[in-house]
Amino acid sequence: MTNTLKLGIPKGSLEESTIKLFKKAGYNISTSSRSYFPKIDDTEIEPILIRAQEIARYVDEGVLDAGLTGKDWIVENDADIEFVQELTYAKSGSNIVRWVLAVPNDSKINSVKDLEGKSIATELVNTTKKYLKNNNVSAEVEFSWGATEVKAPKLVDAIVELTETGSSLKANNLRIVDTVIESTTQFIANKKSYKDAWKKKKINNIAMLLKSALVAEAKVGIKLNIEEKNIEKIVKNLPAMRNPTISKLYEKGWVAIETIVDETIVREIILKLKENGAQDIIEYPLNKVIY
What is the pLDDT of residue 103? Predict the structure, then answer.
């Protein structure tokens, strides 16, 4: 009998970015708008599309062996799970996301203390209630089924809403008062499943490949040719995960150098390399970086 890992894939805002990450990690997932059971090119994995809000609960209960969801929903569901790997990616980028307390621009609410006796709409009800309790504030918290940004001030005094950039809040004439909780995507496992040797190894291998794909997104590879006499002034200014790889070329007096650098600094590095005699410079993307 073939071992199978039941894996929760978040449906909704994280779905597309999660499937792209899996592809970069080496797993091809194909979905259908009519099915919650996507196909994957690994017979040992049984993926199930479930809303991120529910994955932590299903992993806790053992319905799923593992899954990807936000730390916010783990906290919201008070889920007792195994944290396997933090994966910092979101709907539109790799930033940490925040649930923030927001009010209309002209509101007199300037701190959590000003919420005493007020009303708040949010999808993150339990976490918001804990936040208020920790600040010794008594306020009404109601569940929001969506379109939360438009509810203040006509329906409620304030909202607690998820944001990556804050642009949606600004567009709805809202300002941020405080951060309730920060969240990143987490790869989690059921505690019983994680004690099973086969499942633990499978889960850890998937986590490693996903993490390596994320790390690779922030880095690029560089290859270049340089005369041997210029090696020192090139290498001392060339970042690398350990040390650059240097190999001799067939042409006497020349070497090839290869290294990995952060994408954010590569444009400055390429200019310096050229100034110091580098030729035939090639920049290339990476799929995985495993330390």
Answer: 97
Long-range contacts of 129-132 (CB under 8 A, 24+ apart): 131/101, 131/160, 131/180, 131/181
Tell me: do 211 and 236 sit in the same domain. Answer: no
| H or E element, residue 134 | helix 125-134
Residue 290's pLDDT is 87
Domain of residue 37, residue span: 5-94+185-216
Give the pLDDT score at 88: 86
**Number of compact structural domains in the chain:** 3
Bridge partners (DSSP) listed for residue 122: 143, 160
In Å, how far from its chain's centre is CA 276? Answer: 38
- Within a domain: residue 290? no
Residue 94 in this model has a pLDDT that exceeds 70:
no
pLDDT band of residue 90 (cuts 50, 70, 90) is low
